[in-house]
Structure formats: structure tokens, C-alpha cells
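Consider a typical record:
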Amino acid sequence: MNLDAVDRAIVNRLQAGFPICERPYARAATELGIEEQELLERLQRMLEQGVLSRFGPLFNAGRMDGGLSLCAMAVPEGRFEEVARRVNAFPEVAHNYRREHELNMWFVLATETAGRIREVLDEIERETGLPVHDMPKRAEYFVGLRFDV
């Protein structure tokens, strides 16, 4: 998909943060010089076409007494799609990525309580019959990554 100047402005603007107010889409649209409905339609189109992989809030689970962990699995190639469907069926799975590595499936768990991480990992292992490597966060670093398009 080719991004026009408005699409580029939307992506660049919203990487810098989203307005926190009663009508955030309306405020963001005004800042971009477009109507709220146009912003919503363009975001939806970019999501549907894979330009954006997700659009939504990021919560600091630890500050809310929740759990957050990076996990990896070694999934046999012939089972990859089936295991991905099973893993992705868990509402606690925030992201899931395929990697070219022995540990070829990586995903992030975000849970309401820190103790729920182990419970979900056990459930995934039972459901798939495969071990899950749990790599909890030890420290957090803010790098301010941004991609101007």
C-alpha cells in the first residue's frame, strides 16, 4: 500500500502520543487538519492492509500489579500454525512473532496479576504439549523509538 501525505502525517503524529481527553480522535484529527471520521477510516484501512500491526494503548502492567513476560517456544514446523492459533487464543497473549531460530515462536504475556503468568504458561504447555521459555523483565529501558514515514 502506498501512503499518501495524510497517512504519513497520521503515523508520524500518533507515534508521539495520543491525546488524553473526552474525544481524543477528534482532537488528533483537528491537529492533523482532517475530520474525525476520516482519521478513523484511515486508521482502520491501515490496520486492515497491514500498514499498522496494532493501534491501541500500552499499559505498564507492573505498575498496576500485573505481570508481563517475554516467552519463547521451539515449535515443530509442521505444527507452527496450529500452535500459533492455540497460543493466540489466550487473551493474555499481547504479541506473537515468528523467528528464524530454534526458538521460532516468541510472544508477550500481559496478565492482571504477576502470579497469573505462571498459570498461563502452564496452560499453554498443557494445551500445546510444548515447553515455554519464560523470560521475565529484569529492567526496563525507554529508548524512544520512532519511525518517521
Summary: The longest helix spans residues 36-48.
